[in-house]
Amino acid sequence: MSAVKIDQAERAERADQAERAERAERADRAVRADGADQAVTARPLRADACRNRQRLLESARTVFAARGSGATVEEIAKAAGVGVGTLYRHFPRRIDLVEAVYREDVEGLVALAAQLCDTAGPWEALVGWLEGFVRYAQAKRTFLTELHEAFEKSPDLAVQSREKIAEAVGTVLMRAQGAGAARDDLDKDDLMQLVGGMCMARNATLEQNERLLTFLLDGIRARPGDV
């Protein structure tokens, strides 16, 4: 092989090595940048960011109730008093916002059970929780399509939510039964079948369901002489 060809081969080899080194360095920088982004993501939200997130959730709940599936992220951001960019920083996709609202509402039912057990009598707590559930169920009817998408995105969401709601209703029901205020031949699954089925009627309004709840309560209340 001539000296010229050897020199050309050596230059080509050095160029190839330099290119591989540059690719490795770019990959390393990308990994470091990704790690830094994850560290930033893991940090607790600042107080103003927390307030913005909560305003977005509250506004989304209101706008969904009024507009249902027709609600837009622009409407929600405007109602919250923030820009659309702020909404997307907290909730990159519309379905993320739907899921966050749903999760917070389920946690609200759990908290309501605990609050009522601390502040109300056994029967009053059961009544108050069921009234809260009727309002919760009516609100969810306005964006059922989005909820189904959220359940597909997070398959465990529906199961975990049902378990939390069942535990909450079980808490207030067992307390009422222990005080002799509610029928003792009723369990939490029976009760949720009754009130949940009532709330899912296609054309039912909140006012109608609240009225029907009074009949349901009359049926599950213990009577003198019940064993």
Topology:
Elements: H1 3-42, H2 47-67, H3 73-80, H4 84-90, H5 94-119, H6 122-141, H7 144-153, H8 156-178, H9 188-199, H10 206-220
Describe the protein's architecture and organization:
The protein is an all-alpha fold and 227 residues long. The protein folds into 2 domains: 49 residues, Orthogonal Bundle (Arc Repressor Mutant, subunit A); 127 residues, Tetracycline Repressor, domain 2 (Orthogonal Bundle), CATH 1.10.357. It is built from 10 helices and no strands. About 9% of the residues have low confidence.
Features:
227 residues; mainly alpha; Arc Repressor Mutant, subunit A; Tetracycline Repressor, domain 2; 2 domains; elongated
CATH class of the largest domain: Mainly Alpha
Name of the CATH homologous superfamily of the largest domain: Tetracycline Repressor, domain 2
Please tell me the overall pLDDT.
82
Which CATH architecture of the largest domain is right? Orthogonal Bundle
What is the end-to-end distance? 107 Å
Encode the helix/strand succession as letters.
HHHHHHHHHH
Offer a quick outline of the entry.
This protein has ten helices and no strands. It has helices at 3-42, 47-67, 73-80, 84-90, 94-119, 122-141, 144-153, 156-178, 188-199, 206-220.
